[in-house]
Design goal:
The chain has one domain (16-112). A hairpin with a 2-residue loop joins strand 3 and strand 4 (60-65). The chain has helices at residues 13-31, 92-117, and strands at 38-39, 47-48, 51-57, 60-65, 78-80. Strands 3-4-5 form a three-stranded antiparallel sheet, covered by helices on one side. Strands 1-2 form a two-stranded antiparallel sheet. The protein is α+β, with helices and mostly antiparallel strands.
Amino acid sequence: MSQHNTTPVKLLKAVQNKIDKALALMEMAKEYDVDVPTTYDGSTMASYVDITDIKVKGKYVYIEEAEHGIHAYGFAKRYNTNKVGDWDADGLADCKYALNLICKTYRKAIKADFKARNYYPTNVTL
């Protein structure tokens, strides 16, 4: 008998909601021509969080990042959402952390850009 559960686990609703939110923020940043978002997470220099797309294929979440050389944040290319342990590399915990960082960074960049332009769209909720 196998000790591992082999039944396929579909993507969690919370993860799908976070992906949808990240994609909406990325689309809003593109629409309003916001500068490339940056973060200081994990380093002493700013790293670009320039995401081109987030895709879901079964249990895997793929985050595609634009090329910025050594100044890119460096997300994992694929996250396995069936790995639910806190210490599993590129598992569910890492996926949630990456998606939260993307949302936080894009939201910060959009708000900063709106404040710089003294323009707040009335139909946008961040």
